[in-house]
Amino acid sequence: MPNRDPNNWQWLISMIPYLLLSAATFTVGFVTVLHNGGPWRKALMSATVGTILSLSLYPGFLWLTDYYGLPDEFAFAACVFLSIMGLEWIRAKADGLYEVLLGFLKKWLK
Among 44, 52, 97, which residue's Cα sits nearest to residue 89? Predict the structure, then answer.
């Protein structure tokens, strides 16, 4: 440790929530797919993509918890909930939103 400065480890301490979120969402996503009868490959891919999705949405959920005055743990819980629901559920909701948006644009452009 150069010059024995304790601030050298501050970056690791600031990353602890993201590391815990990664571990929790990956584990929950992996176990959920295996529990639902999916193969190992699907479980691994679903857990990886779910972890990437939750890590990208985590700052947005943190913003919402700050906006509504809720504890930061609610953002963590929302990300883990998304990994429990699985990628198929998220894909179905995104497809439904896309169809609504596409229908609105077609109606608006007429």
Answer: 97
Kindly tell me if the per-residue pLDDT of 33 is higher than 80: yes
* Contacts of residue 34, Cβ cutoff 8 Å, sequence gap at least 6: 40, 43
- 36: three-class secondary structure by DSSP: coil
- Full 3-state SS string of 67-96: HHCCCCHHHHHHHHHHHHHCHHHHHHHHHH
Q: Which residues contact 59 (CB under 8 A, 6 or more apart)?
A: none
| Reported pTM | 0.79
Q: What pLDDT score was predicted for residue 3?
A: 67
